[in-house]
Design brief:
The chain is mainly alpha-helical and 286 residues long. Helices cover 59% and strands 0% of the residues.
Length: 286
């Protein structure tokens, strides 16, 4: 598949054809007019757990992307990664707010972001791995955005109207994130000998984490369809590899699950970096 055909294939998932642009700078409140009451028949515990997990994925992923600031290969790439990170932060804020509404604690987004230790986070572990080089960052971004997009497309019809609204807004953002990553993977894989070597290494490093994502059924109770999302992720992963001239291995999945609270050694120092100012100056405001 050529680069152009891959771009057309992935962009086809955007409803209005604008999926190649970031939507994180919009001013319209995506939850305006949405009833925040948990509907009858919706398991509040499952809803809170899912919103927390998806919020953690977004927050941790955004923090890793922020590490490219002032260090990206080009200024345009740096701006794009910063905007992708802002999209994810916006998703995390909405999801954390919904968690605090549903779990009965009344906690706000800052409580979830700044005042929990690593063992309380429920993100998938791929998000917390070290930044790595640009090739690995693009492989990871492709995995997380393709998987998250597939989930959000399904959760846009979730029985909880707030989660459905958050997911519907996120679909456009995630379509761009996925496209950005795929385009760069093809450019690097089909580039120089060195860029192709690094891109293959990035694929080989990210590939074994697909198994953890495929095994995550936390969204199924709200209409997430883990099996369908995993199948879409695998299709995008393989189509992108073919377009880039990369080899897809029969990856042995890493044991464990971030959704169960299992962490790598890399999350705690990342959170220390993220939370340092808030914890040094509790209650401070502009």
């Amino acid at each position: 598949m050529s680069d152009e055909h891959l771009s057309a294939s992935l962009a086809a998932g955007a409803e209005d054809g604008e999926g190649r642009w970031a939507f994180g700078t919009g001013f319209e409140d995506p939850l305006h007019g949405v009833d925040t009451t948990v509907p009858d028949g919706v398991d509040a515990g499952a809803l809170a757990a899912l919103c927390l997990a998806l919020g953690d994925d977004a927050l941790v992923g955004a923090q890793r992307l922020a590490q490219w600031t002032t260090d990206a290969p080009e200024l345009e790439i740096e701006l794009a990664l910063a905007n992708i990170g802002l999209d994810l932060l916006g998703q995390a804020r909405l999801l954390y707010a919904r968690t605090g509404q549903v779990d009965g604690t009344g906690r706000g987004e800052d409580d979830f972001a700044y005042w929990r230790d690593a063992d309380a986070f429920r993100n998938v572990r791929l998000a917390e791995l070290p930044r790595g080089d640009f090739a690995f960052s693009m492989a990871r971004l492709l995995v997380l955005s393709a998987w998250r997009l597939a989930l959000f497309q399904r959760l846009a019809a979730a029985p909880d109207p707030v989660l459905a609204a958050i997911a519907a807004k996120g679909v456009k953002e995630l379509a761009y994130h996925r496209q950005f990553a795929a385009d760069w993977i093809v450019r690097l894989g089909d580039g120089t000998e060195e860029s192709a070597r690094r891109m293959q290494a990035g694929y080989d490093e990210a590939g074994p984490w697909l198994g953890e994502l495929a095994a995550d059924t936390s969204a199924d109770a709200l209409g997430g369809d883990a099996a369908g999302a995993a199948a879409e992720l695998r299709q995008v992963w393989e189509e992108t590899a073919r377009a880039a001239g990369l080899t897809v291995g029969a990856y042995a999945a890493h044991p464990g699950a971030g959704r169960s609270g299992e962490r790598t050694e890399h999350l705690a120092p990342l959170l220390e970096e993220l939370q340092s100012v808030a914890r040094a100056h509790p209650g401070a405001a502009w």
